[in-house]
Amino acid sequence: MMSDASEMLAAALEQMDGIIAGSKAMDYSNGLFDCQSPTSPFLGGLRVLHLLEDLRGALELMDNEERDNLRCQIPDSTAEGLAEWLSCVVLFLSFVFYFSSIFIYL
Question: Is the whole model's pTM more than 0.85, yes or no?
């Protein structure tokens, strides 16, 4: 089970690294965008959400030592890209919560 979770996590991280870097080539299939195409925001966004959920699930199956060992294998560019993106998400959510609390008191 440990190797399955590790393999899933490695595959998810590799795919996320490609999405973040925008290195996936645009593919067409019968005139439609491929899900991996970064120019297809709806399908690409859904793919990222699924990858994030897969990543979360795989991490939950690992113990702390496995996570630490895996963390050491993540490329710096991937870690930095994810950290930057997640910090923007956290900042956005903090603004949403702040302004929603203001409207409650108005």
Answer: no
